[in-house]
Amino acid sequence: MSGTSEAPRVLVVAGPTATGKTRLGIELARRWGGEIVSADSMQIYRGMDIGTAKATPEERAAAPHHMLDVADPREDYSVSRYVEDAARCCGEILARGRLPILVGGTGLYIDSLLSGRDFAQRGDGDDGLRAALNAEYDRLGGEAMLAQLAAFDPERAEKLHPADRRRIVRAIEIYRLTGRTITAHDAETRARPPRYRASTVVLSYRDRADLYARIDARVDAMIEAGLFEETQRLLAQGLSAASTAMQAIGYKEAVLALRGEISREEAAALIKQNSRRYAKRQLTWFRRDADALWILWDREPDFALAVRQVEDRFGPF
């Protein structure tokens, strides 16, 4: 991802799950005096350690980590809040004369932070208005609400399905709060220069079968480390199984097993299957970045070689 010369520089380590992003991020942080900013939509939640493959205490001691454990899992943490919090972290790291290294697999979080997108201009939202619009959606249906949106933002309405309640309600809410459409706002933000100059590294495996084997091994390790017990503890603390946090892969399947709807063996198989599908979506997302350096492992990762490849491609930081 390219940017202007005036924008501060950051390094990004992205890629699908189980590809060694955390380890490479630490190696790069050691090499260039960097600090790691997590770009994972589930590692932000406190108490969700095993199922999110969060950096261990030893890994956090090896390099400073940020944007871990910043939200209660009962919160509905948004991408706009992530951008606000992570941009503040990056600013503080840069002020210390160090290199921000974004590490994670949530492409939307990474792209939103790197871009010049300003979510604040959309307004902070209004719980009362949103509740009223949701009630209106229940009463009138998606078709009628989409027609309402089309009256002032036909371009956005054309992109949405009547069943996409959240985006329809949000688009109408923003217009009523700000007097401006999401389409107009997005056109403005696309014209802005990026927030950072990003040098992006994407990790994966040369052979897709090796990636899937790594994913399967990671799931087995998570279960052995206590994934079901961690899920049970979260539920016992009052976290709803329907919450955003508990929809994360690993937890939602564990909930089914804890309820007795499927066996633990079936849950493990389902976690592996869903993780492999998610990895495919992640690969598709990151392929959009034509400037990224792809490092494809051959069975066993070679992190020392990867550090040299990053330096050869992007130069010293």
Task: Tell me what you see in this structure.
It is a single chain. This protein is an alpha/beta fold and 317 residues long. The chain folds into two domains: 9-117 and 192-314, 3-Layer(aba) Sandwich (Rossmann fold); 120-191, Histone, subunit A (Orthogonal Bundle), CATH 1.10.20.140. It is 53% helix and 10% strand. The chain has helices at 21-32, 57-62, 79-95, 107-114, 127-140, 142-150, 154-159, 165-178, 182-191, 208-225, 227-236, 251-258, 264-286, 303-314; strands at residues 9-14, 34-38, 65-66, 99-103, 197-205, 293-297. It has a six-stranded parallel sheet, with helices on both faces. Helix 3 (79-95) crosses helix 4 and helix 11 crosses helix 12. It is globular. The two termini are 16 Å apart. The model has no long low-confidence stretch (mean pLDDT 92).
Feature tags:
Histone, subunit A, single chain, 53% helix, alpha/beta, 6 strands, 317 residues, six-stranded parallel sheet
